[in-house]
Design brief:
The complex is a heterodimer. In chain A, a hairpin with a 2-residue loop joins strand 1 and strand 2. Chain A is mainly alpha-helical. Chain A is built from eight helices and two strands. The chains are: A mainly alpha, B alpha+beta.
Amino acid sequence: MASLADVISYIHNNYPDAQNSLSVERLIKLIYLADWKYSISHDLHSQITSIEWRIRDFQPWMDNLSVTEMIKVLATIRVGKLLRISQELTEEQKRSLQFVIETAVEKNEDDLSRLVHSTFPAIKQNNSSSILDFSVLAREYEAEFKPFIGKRN
Amino acid sequence: MSSRDSRSIPQRIAQFSENYGAQTFSLFGSIALAIAGILPSVQQGQGWIWLNNTVYGRVFMLGAFFSVIGGAVSIISAPGYKSQQERIRFLEGELASKTKALENELVIQKKVLENELSARKKGYSRILNDELKVLTRILNFGNNDRLSLYRYDRRERRFIMIARHSSNPRFKQPGRVFYPEDSGCIGKAWEQGSCFVDLPEPGTEQYYRVHEELWNMNRQTVDFITMKSRTIGGISLENLSGERIAVLIFESTRNKAFRENSIKNLMNNCGEAARITYLLERVGKIEPDLIYAHEEGF
């Protein structure tokens, strides 16, 4: 799994005008979407980060410790201290992150929220006390959702 | 008087060598190397006169002069090692406080945005759950009972559970995401407008048979259900155009927990069905939509 610093750094470096337009709320959604996108894009179905996600009111939620760590990393990047960070992300992970960045840039807060709460894990485990297991959810998504799409087509 | 002035000579030398040791050694080193270059000619008895009489000697003198002056100026003007260290420490402190200030700013920003968004998202996700919560109170539902609301997905011809309430945390947990349109009490209530059944003791052959015969549910699906209901009822909800849009399911693990007539009376004559339908219509536009997420690549 990639470090949070690497993931945030990658997003910050590639998000247009990140300094002004990338809020913490938006960043949380981006990381969640990247974790989900990555898990449905490769066979092992693992997530990029080691964040323990939960869903509350259809929104991804992480514990306060992770939020604090995330804010620290973001602040450190913004004051220019983490510019030379080693980005040990795989090409597949970078592709998922890039995809999420390109999707999110076009969306305002409401549209991005709607996208997030329309994802399979958000619907499947809304207000559940359990931590999201992306590898299980990605398999369930394949099994439960894809057949419906197939039927539709 | 400053503490620097009160220092003894050895202390001052130590301080000087700590600050300017490298530059001083470098200066004396280059002077020594230059002298080493002219010593052979002095030793050969030519004395020091050639320094003044020859072009080579004059260039050497000029070079030595500039080297000494340059070295001295460099020592005087260049910040010493210690002061550089102090400067680095100062800048690091500044950077740390700037980082901390930014962290605090980000925390505040996050809280403001979080409140703003949660007010909006509560508009969707809480409102229906709260409505079901009120309904469970009216019905006097307790730890053994549950209410679930399933919206019909016309495009995909299936049901999606969009709100659920039970005071029992185990029964409150979300189950499957999708429910087929032709299965279970949901399917029956959708097809016939309502469906109320008192079920036999869970785990018995009769229990499985009722599920199979009435609702097209096999043994494996029945085993998968967390809440083994004894009383179950479903009512389809229609919008103002008379179009069915959702099914509300009432469940209890108690035997004969509620009666069909009283539920129907509450829903249809007391306006509960109309209220839920109205809310469903209002939140429809911002409701989670898996197809939307799928089309966006997620």
